[in-house]
Amino acid sequence: MARIVYGVMGDSRGHLSRSLAVAGELSRHEIIFAGGGLVETVRQQGYRSISLPMLGTILRNGAVDTMATLANTARELLRRRATLAALRRELEALRPDLVVTDYEYFTPLAARQLGLPCISIDHQHVVTHTRYETPPGQRWNRLCTSLPIRLLFSNAERFLVSSFFAPPVAEPARVELFGPVLRPQPLQYTAGTGEHVLVYLRGASLKAVTELLDGRERRYVIYGFGEGRGTANCAFKKASVDGFLEDLTTAAAVLSNGGHSLLSESFHFGKPVCCVPTGMFYEQYLNAWFVEQLGYGRLMPDIARREILDDFEARIPAFAANLAGKSFHGNAALAARVEALL
Questions:
Q1: Quick check: 15 and 41 in contact, CB under 8 A?
Q2: Which Gene Ontology molecular-function terms are recorded (predicted)?
Q3: pLDDT tens across 188-198, in order?
Q4: Domains recognised in the chain with CATH numbers
Q5: Residues 6+ apart with CB under 8 A from 106
Q6: Is 0.85 surpassed by the pTM of this model?
């Protein structure tokens, strides 16, 4: 049995759910998490955790708040020396066999200072560590995203990138691609059939969502705004893991942002997606662009573009046919690679 310290960015559930899924695959080893925000919730599942500050992305009004994100990053970098000193003491006491980072800043730096092996497992490095044509109109957005990834989050020795799309890697000796890492809960469900569209648009306003969907012929099941009365064709539901997965597995399609976790789960169940990327969130835009390029759905750059939703819904059967028979489950292969690296 090995001891693994697993650093996780705690500003969104995507990082944490992927890390917990990987930890579940490595259950014969001792896993100790490190991070801030949502990471501390792992204690409820019986894991130990080390508290760390976050260099997270801050969202406001449905878009990345660049100035607030930069201010938070600068504040934590000014405290970096003290944070790293405390973390080194923790690692020296634990003496881990491996350090893993899912887009966490401090753990790979402390590992390097102590001469500990460190690997990265995330989706974000598909942005910087693979080769692809920049989507039209996104050069500045790509640059603004790539710089912090390279400067702040690329200190591991090796990168295991989880992704539903697979462009060529830039450095085959250090970078490997795997299929999506799925949470355990979706794997307990099987895909069904239905006519509704599941809607989860983090950061969008209720007004914008209702203006887009109200009065259309199709029925929409909407999460993220709490439970409400809804309209003739729109049902608003309260947050529920089981309820969400039930509605996902029986949906005809999904309308969501470009987050990799929900895209991967949707594709696992054969559900096409119409993507509305969060503003100035290049990783989400890139995901959505590949969704469209691969024929798995449509990229909808503005929530007001009703004509794109019209086209998407008309082509749901064709998009579903493109997804049929494909695998979007890379948990076992990625875990086997980690075992080989121990």
A1: no
A2: glycosyltransferase activity
A3: 999 999 999 99
A4: 3-179+330-341 (3.40.50.2000), 186-323 (3.40.50.2000)
A5: 7, 34, 52, 53, 80, 83, 84, 87
A6: yes
